[in-house]
Amino acid sequence: MDTAVIRAINRLWLEVYPGLARQAADLCPQPPRRILEVGCFSGGTGLELLRLFPHSRLAVAQEISELAETFFADWPIDAAAGSRIDIRPTPLVPLALPDAAFDLVVCRGVFFFLDEKAGLLAEMHRVLAPGGVCFAGGGFGSHTPRAVIDPIADESRRLNYELGKKVVSPEEFRAMLDRNGIRADLVHDGGLWALMKK
Q1: How far apart are CA 21 and CA 109, in angstroms?
Q2: What is the mean pLDDT for each group of 10 consecutive residues in the chain (198 residues)?
Q3: List of residues 6+ apart from 124 with CB closer than 8 A
Q4: Whole-model pTM?
Q5: How far apart are the C-alpha atoms of 21 and 11, rounded to whole Å?
Q6: What domains does the chain contain, in order, with CATH numbers?
Q7: pLDDT at position 51, please?
Q8: pLDDT at 69
Q9: Hey, which residues does 193 pair with through a beta bridge?
Q10: Would you state the pLDDT for residue 93?
């Protein structure tokens, strides 16, 4: 994937990440101590989650080494938050992470990475701790106001298609999950998301 386009999308979405973080946070039955954000669009949502959960730590599973090296160049980050972040260069399937290690796992743009076996979703479930929540999918999120979405929607769509965005219907997503024995609820609020619990 073109790292320049990925960074352009991430910069474009700076004002979206607080809403995505708030939606993920609302799903947590208790404050997560260990948060994992997965994929090349990671960073913004994770940082916002650290602001919401000041006692949490964030791991970022990043498969593109160039992005990992310049990971937070586009995000304002203070030293206190920076000390709670761990960048983990790893393939997405399998994730080079231990079982049951995270209380909250999030992935925006998961449809870029799904194959017929839904391996990434299975891996995110594997690293989820008992009582944890995984929120993976795509969309602007339920808490992002139209005043943020409308000015960037067309450019975001263009850049995502330039990267090779896959359009997956709710029915196709449900069928993929069922075929692979992945238990998840579909969330349609603010996009299309899989909500997995352990």
Answers
A1: 14
A2: 90 95 97 96 92 95 76 70 88 96 97 88 97 97 97 97 91 95 96 97
A3: 36, 38, 95, 105, 107, 134, 136, 196
A4: 0.94
A5: 16
A6: 3-197 (3.40.50.150)
A7: 92
A8: 63
A9: 137, 187
A10: 94
Instruction: Report pLDDT for 71.
Output: 66
What is the reported pLDDT for 43?
Answer: 86
Concatenate the DSSP letters of all residues of the chain into one string.
--HHHHHHHHHHTTTTHHHHHHHHHHT-SS--SEEEEESTT-SHHHHHHHHH-TT-EEEEEE--HHHHHTTTTTS---HHHHTTEEEEE--SSS-SS-TT-EEEEEEETGGGT--TT-HHHHHHHHTEEEEEEEEEEESS-TTS-HHHHHHHHHHHHHHHHHHTPPP--HHHHHHHHHHTT---EEE-TTSEEEEEE-
Distance CA 162, CA 164 (A): 5
Number of other residues whose CB lies within 10 A of the CB of residue 184: 21
**Inter-axis angle of helices 3-12 and 146-163, nearest 10:** 170
CA separation for the pair 68, 48 (Å, rounded): 18
CB 125, CB 198: distance < 8 Å: yes
